Amino acid sequence: MVSKGLIKRNKEATQPKVIENSKTSVVISGRKQSQPLREVLSFINKLREPNNVNWTGQSHNYLPFEEVVEIENLSKHKDASLFFLGSHTKKRPNNLTVGRLFNYEMLDMIEFGVENYTPMKKKGVSNRVESKPCILFKGDAFVNDDNMKMAHNLLLDSLRGKEVKAINLLGLDHVIVCTALSNDTIQFSHYGVEYKPSGQQTPVVELVELGPNFDLKIRRTRFASSELRKKALEVPQELRKGRHHNKNITRDELGNTEARIHVDQQEIKTIAIKKFESLKKRSRDEIDKMNKKAGLDQERLQEKKNFSTTSSSDEPSAKKSKKQ
Fold first, then answer.
1. Could you list the residue range(s) of the whole structural domain that residue 192 is in?
2. Is 51 helix (H, G, I), strand (E, B) or coil?
3. Which SS3 state, helix, strand or coil, does residue 233 take?
4. Within a domain: residue 125?
5. Is residue 299 part of a domain?
6. 96 lies in some domain
7. Is the residue at 315 inside a domain?
8. Where does the UniProt annotation place the signal sequence (predicted)?
9. Rounded to whole angstroms, what are the CA distances from 161 to 17, 130, 301?
10. How many CB atoms lie within 10 A of CB 54?
11. How confident is the model at residue 96 (pLDDT cuts 50, 70, 90)?
12. Quick one: which H or E segment has residue 106?
């Protein structure tokens, strides 16, 4: 029997977060598969580990362009936002569908045809878990054509793996190159990185072809509506760093942070400050009494001064009388 605490923790894990977890993908095999397509799915499965669910053990009758509900239910069950579906039919041979979801709702989906397949020549980096690839896109079509723009964005989102702030260059051991051959064809090439001694501090870097290499030809596309895309691209309030937040923060030449603080106008009359007796507001009668008191004090002070002067003048005569 499943405990209530486990159900609660699983439910909380699937709730939206300010900083989301790494994207999980599902690799699915369709009704029929060819040998090249099996190897491509196996390569994607190893490339996406450990953030991947492998569903290539048995065939599945999923047709996302005809019925998308089954894929959405599967993504909700596996808590996955990416999927790769491979199928092989006479009408669409070597068919690879790549898609992503937002909030378990289909966002973008592109159907590729795998052509000119070359198998893997050398085993290596594809067996390393969480080995981040260097992904390079070449060609003007990725900038000028709308479908190629979306293919560029979707492939980058699907293959980059876990998002990190920094990586060790020595851990960068394989490169994926996507070249735009035309407005609907992408050449996918996979290379390994070898570091060889050069007699200096910086080693010599060489690219070695690993495979698999193949061409991806765009067949069908399905993109999200403007409203759904706006929701998917919305940034949480906690992570917004716009100009209106940092317009008063600058850095000097030494890198020190300087900020300008705006203070509202202060009500000086109501500020609680130390009040001195001489600055206290008084009535006319109180002022007259104080002046009168000050006059009396002045007279007493003058009397004391006169008394002290007379006493000092009498002292020498008293001394003279004593001597006589």
1. 23-227
2. coil
3. coil
4. yes
5. no
6. yes
7. no
8. none
9. 19, 7, 94
10. 17
11. very high
12. strand 105-118
> Residue ranges of the alpha helices (H) in 173-270?
226-232, 243-246
CB 210 within 8 A of CB 177: no
Calpha distance 233→244 (Å, rounded): 20
Whichever domain contains 206, its CATH number is 3.40.50.10480
pTM: 0.70
Cβ atoms of residues 217 and 211 within 8 Å: no
Q: Is 192 helix (H, G, I), strand (E, B) or coil?
A: strand
Q: How far apart are CA 60 and CA 29, in angstroms?
A: 6
Tens-digit pLDDT profile for residues 178-237: 999 999 999 999 998 888 888 888 888 889 998 899 999 999 999 999 999 998 888 777
Would you give the distance in Å from CA 132 to the centre of its chain? 18
Q: Decide: 113 and 93 in contact? Cβ < 8 Å.
A: yes
Number of structural domains found in the chain: 1
**Alpha-carbon torsion angle 19, 13, 109, 137, nearest 10:** 40
Separation CA 150–CA 156 (nearest Å) = 10
Looking at residue 62, the DSSP 8-state letter turns out to be: -
Query: Which residue in the block uniquely carries the two structure tokens 């070597």?
Result: 94
Q: Are 201 and 166 in contact (CB under 8 A)?
A: no
Specify the pLDDT at position 4: 72
Say how many residues make up the chain. Answer: 324
For residue 26, which amino acid is it?
V
Q: What is the DSSP letter of 60?
A: -
